[in-house]
Structures are given as C-alpha cells and as structure tokens.
Fold:
Amino acid sequence: MTEPTRCTWKGMNGDPFYEAYHDHEWGVPEWDSRALWEKLVLDGFQAGLSWITILRKREAFRAAFADFDPEKVARFDETDRARLMADAGIIRSNGKIDAAISGARIYLDMRERGEDFGKLLWDMVGGAPIQNQWRAGEVPTQTPLAVEMSKALKAKGFKFCGPVIVYAFMEATGLVNDHLVTCFRHKECKAMGHRPQP
Structure:
C-alpha cells in the first residue's frame, strides 16, 4: 500500500504518532469553544519549543489541567501551581502555567458577559476556514490576520499568544486550511469547511 503524500513537516515522515496527528486532527475545523481554548493554552506552552514535544505530553497536560475544564482551572491556587511546577510530565514554566490559569478566568469572564470564545475567533476569519493554496516552502509563519487575532486576544488579557503562536493555532484548529495543495488532507479538510448545523 502506497503512503499518502503529506505536508513536508520536519521529523514527521515515518513517525506514526506524528503522522496520525497530521492525518486526523491538524487542520480540521474546531468549532467548540472549550477545545479551542485548550489548543490555545497548549500552543502557549509550545512557545520556544517544537509542537511534537507538546503533542507527546498532551495527555499529561490534560491530566494536570483537569482535562482543560476552564471552571476547574480558574480555581487553581498556589497548591495547584506548586503541583504543576513539580509535574515532570508537562512543561514547567511559571509564566506559562500562570497564563493558563488566568486564561481560564478570562474565558469564563467572557462567557459571563455573553461573549463566546469560539465565535470571537471564527468571526475574525469570516465564519468559515480560509482555504489557502500553499506549496512546499510557501507557508508563512504569521499573517496580518494572525497579528490582528493576537492583538484581539491580548486585549482580552490572554498571554503567550503572539502572531506566530496564533498562526500555528489557526492552522491546527482549521481556522485556515494550510495543508499543502499536494497533501492528501488539503481536499479532505476543505470539504469540512462549514459549521455543522445544531
């Protein structure tokens, strides 16, 4: 059986775990606000590291952060911070841990005021994934829209959400379809480009 043609990510070829993430998750439009917030937190932890490092620790992060339930994370206190800083399964960074906890509080505060986190993000891309047509070597690390989204998130108080992090987040959650046109997933993700009806 021939291997499908994939995006040209460094280190992915021949790594079944990484290939599975690319083939089934990356670029799939994510409409759920809580899942979007989880991904933003994980991308914040990625700052200065490779995504595969975070991906391999994702289950440990989920265990450490109460399955990214914002109501639980928002209540984390100094005991929880100490527990997280002692957890070798995650990235131990005071700044990133604090950003995750404060981000949960901001997420809930937005919800209290009738603002939906997911709607904020999807409205910025016009309510449907941006369909790009990149070839190898053309994919940017940030775009003017990522800069705009980064500013909007920072204005709410979110941290570790600069334009490069935000663009990686947009790609992963399908706000943009950045699978290369030569990749078998480009067409498949393009076909998912409409919000499912409730």
Notes: The chain has a mean pLDDT of 95. DSSP finds ten helices and two strands in the chain. Residues 38 and 68 are 6 Å apart (CA to CA).
